[in-house]
Amino acid sequence: MIVKLFHTTIAALTAIAVSPVAVAGGGLPSNVVTGDVREGWVTESGTRMVALHLQLAPGWKTYWRAPGDAGIPPTFTWEGSENLGGVSYHWPSPEVFTSYGMRSIGYKHELVLPLELHPTAPGVPIRLRGTMDLGVCETICVPARLTFHADLEGAGHSDPEIHRALAKRPVPGQRAGVDGVDCNLDPIPDGLQLSATIQMPRIGGEEVALVEAGDPRIWVSEPETYRSGGTLQVRADLVPPDGKPMALDRSALRFTVIGARQAVDIRGCATN
């Protein structure tokens, strides 16, 4: 088994809506983000469960798959991999950060991101080659690129770190007591306004709802969230690249509700 460390490149600073901050010493720390590939194990279904383990310098954070207005969305490419038919991403529940009046969604200290690799030929070694473009942020935010590779063969072994990350995933809505989701979609000049009514029990603290449209090209405004008894109201604007009203598949909508006790993953909604 050969598992090699990441090569990390910090790109030029990117402009975001925060107060400018001078970088001490004329540059960034060389170890803002480091990591490795956790080799994992072959599952009963024949896939391979591995993980990217990112470690962040003190005070720095990185972002969830839908990072909010103040974040940089992570993207992956798998060019050069062999015996790899697809990858499923198992994101652990993120934290909500507020800075300069803007909200972002992500992780501090570290991120263990389980990846389920779907081999083209089960039982044959997987040659994993990939890049991850991500954002890392302290008082400034920068894009970074991680390149990594691992030659994965044999059955592997159970990994407590990966199991812990899998256990931290948002709970499916049905298991969390979600009793229904109704949606209204009203045209606005540059897209649609979504108004969702989610029947679900409280999950503690200040509940924050996140919305994904099912298409990463569709911009989603920071959702407004209101609680009334057993009902959570969520409102957000959805704007496609061409900035025009559009048709939207309600079944593709995805809500993540984060509270003090847990996070809940809710897929799709019905017509209100």
Model description:
The protein is built from one helix and 22 strands. The protein has two domains: 166 residues, Sandwich (Immunoglobulin-like); 101 residues, Immunoglobulin-like. Strands 1, 2, 5, 6, 8, 9, 11 and 12 form an eight-stranded antiparallel beta sheet that branches. The chain is mainly β and 272 residues long.
CATH topology of the largest domain: Immunoglobulin-like
Largest sheet: 8 strands, antiparallel
Q: According to CATH, what is the class of the largest domain?
A: Mainly Beta
- End-to-end gap: 53 Å
CATH superfamily of the largest domain: Thiol:disulfide interchange protein DsbD, N-terminal domain
Structural class: mainly beta
Mean pLDDT: 85
